[in-house]
Amino acid sequence: MANEEAIKKELEEKFDFLKDKIIIPRERRLFTEPVEIEDFLKAIEYAASKMDFDILTTITGLDEGESIVAIYHLARKDGTMLNLKSKTPKENPVMKTISNLFNGAVFYERELVDMLGVQMEGLPEGKRYPLPDDWPEGQYPLRKEWKREMLDAKP
Amino acid sequence: MAVQILEIIIFPGFLFLTVFAMIAEYLDRILYARFQNRKGPPWFQPFADFIKLVAKEDIVPECANPFVFKLMPILALASVITASFYIPMWDNKALFSFEGDIIVIVYLLTIPTISFFLGGWYSRSLYATIGAMRNLTQLFAYEVPLFLAILSPAILAHTWSLSEMTVFFNNHLWLLPFNIIGFAVALIALLGKLEKVPFDIPEAETEIVAGSFTEYSGRLLAFFRMAIDIEMVVGASLVAAVFLPFGLGLNPVLGFILYILKVVFVIFLLALLRSVFARLRIEQMMDFCWKYLAPAAFLQIVVCVILKGVLL
Amino acid sequence: MQRPGKMISEVLKHVGKTPATTNYPFEKAEMPEHFRGKLQFLPHRCKGCMLCTKDCPSEAIKIKKVGDKKFEAEIDLDRCIYCGQCVESCFIQALVMTTDFELAALNREDLKMTINEKNSPKPPAEEE
Amino acid sequence: MSKLTIPIGPQHPALKEPECFIITVDGERICEANMRLGYNHRGIEKRCEEITYIQSAYLIERVCGICSHSHSTAFIQAVEEIAGLEVPKRGLYIRTLFGELERIHSHLLWLGVAGHEIGFDTLLMYSWRDREIVMDILAMVSGNRVNYGMNSIGGVKRDISPEQADAILKAMDDLEERTKYYIELGLQETTLIKRLSGAGSISYEDATRLGAVGPTARASKVDQDVRRDDPYAAYAELEFNVITDDHNDVYGRTLVRLGELMESYKLVRQLIKNMPDGPIRKKGPRKIPAGEAISRYEAPRGEDVHYVKANGTDKAFRVKVRAPTLANLSAVSKMLEGDYLADVPIVIAAIDPCFSCTDRMAVRNIRGGATEMHNPGSLRNFSIDWYRRRGIDFTDLNKKLMKRLERV
Q1: Distance of CA B229 to the CA centre of its chain
Q2: Domains identified in chain A and CATH numbers
């Protein structure tokens, strides 16, 4: 676990906002608590460029009630996974793209846009993914209040 | 006159060719299946396919040119059947023959490809257009080697009539082995003409659906398929007549059996070749035809010219 | 070393061999012993615990009480995904899977089975 | 000739599943490749929030037919991690064994599909025939050819008897011999090499930048394999090599997959030989305590990632599936640029795409369409009418057919 402790220490020293917010549930896994988007961007850039976390496995979007949380699962060649979380208020969810850091992130970010209604700033133009083109506006299926019946309701 | 019309329509003309073409298709398919360790279709499969297609509705795409679209399958069918009349099958003499009929046969056998091209081009579908382009590109690649390969025995026999050529080779059977390169070239070019693997580029189903035939359905498609089947038989007969002309003119029954065996042998070779190769890309096909096939055909001509000069 | 037609010998070898494919609807296929096919319900064993209904991922099985300690099962074969979870959940083996797999039907209604004591096979004598 | 825009999909013979690639070609060269994904929505992630863990395991297994064991293992590993369940050794070994058998059948399937895409149908028939050997093994042990249903929370459901183990070992010998032949074929057959080399080239830098995974990445010299880097199940105790190749193209991917087949045979033999005795499962709880876990699994197509968040009930709070194909798709547009149109099918096939995995996501569409519904009976009547209007009467024939059907 020394390796994971070292990562934790390095991140905590570098970023004040991550203090005591990093959990190590088991070998090769690190989870952080959700942080604000500006702080998060600094952390992910540092992790990607300085700490060799250069594989973005995926982005998971979560509806946590008050806020929308996105978990960025970063992986390193030695198998260690760093799961950085960012959060944004649910009323006005705005996030910034990280496709400049990870070119493969575009699909995962489009998923957040379609499924959770996040506004992704700086996302390159393109076809939507994964919902169909005639999907009713303002319906975001992965939000907790969304039910299947809402699809049938007349707008 | 009446006998000739009967010959054209029934035997050895249209009707015989149609039935034989279906049997040839079955043979081709069952051999292909056996090479792949499969059971293969039952004997009536080609007939069933044909009847099914004929019973189906013809659909002409809205933006296609209906006249050309409908004409092309018939043109293809007509030209291959016409070509068969000039090929001596089990006799020294073809149904019709004159000095220069080799050229006519080769050109008549080109018409199906042209009609595939026109049919595909005028159906105005994306896949069909690309298939049509490929049809034409491919035509330029295999036609020259095929023609050269058939030309060299003609040079050796000093005649432009296929019937006379077979007579000549029957009298000089020992000359046949010298045409072996030409035989190989003609066989490979025939694969290209019949659009079979590795040269099924114009109708590569995983790339462009069905190429020129994408928009064809029902009767029109049935005619196209029939044309390809007959083309296979006629092509095999041509190769048999030029490169394996032995045993003609001895006895009609023996000749007929020999003819069937020869065609089956050529079909066997075609099926074998198509089961061991992957489909080439169009530019690889061009490369292959011009870099290897055409020079090989030229070599055959050189061999023939030298033979003619030294031995005859 | 590259050479074209590498497969010729292999291909020619196969001409005489028996084909690997079979003429399926005419030659029946044999399923392995523990195949997960059509469900069979044994009403005389059922105690009505409803665990199968609860665990079924596709809501394909319903157990109804039809009398005193008597149960009948309604199985929807077109909903069933043949996962075997109900057999797993049933701790008294009132559900078993058979090797029957030819279940195609022209009508959806034909795929609904109701199994009770009347139409189920007689319980084997060695039971209980 | 001007530029043409060709849609490959949503329905196209080259694609076994609906997905749309929009290819712009200039003659035969590709200038641009775009894609539209999402035709395969079934709402699995949302559905998993509505059903119990036991039911979810089966739903997750059906994310994809080919790599069903991969998905269910990845999901169940995450759940077990949250619940803190210690799976018995034998259970882990059987789980791993199935993972490897699945890899074998998936790679043989891929070989056949690749053969078909380049018009080499004989290769398709042979490799699929040989694949039946491993399918029979899977059916014998698990009771089905796909969707094995082997995993359950806390272990596996079915044990392997000594006779079955012998049958597996024998099958491995047969398969190894066949695979050696395919490797020889891949190294020697000219048309195969001509078609595969140079197609879908992607450099090491691009592969890492775009996040390619699995054999696609490994054919570009990216040395990554979750089985070694982040060992799960029994992999930490097994010996195997990670196959990489530096061809960077489809040919390299073929060689990598064939090499992995050989490694898999080795692994299966080790697993059977070292399989410990003991129980195969531990009873798992129905309610999973709150927590979150991420589980990685090296599926045949690449790294499969499942994230599960539990909230203490018997239903998951959130399940996230990242199938390997989604990671590889970004690389596909890059690969296609500058290639020939003829290479599109094989380049797409070379990542071994599984679009149903990719599009598993969130919504079950329950809106009924306004189209006419036909059942087989009314469809038959419709066709009889259609022909009668054209002067062909099939009524008698149809009656005969119906009689025959009834008799059956």
Answers
A1: 8
A2: 2-151 (3.30.460.80)
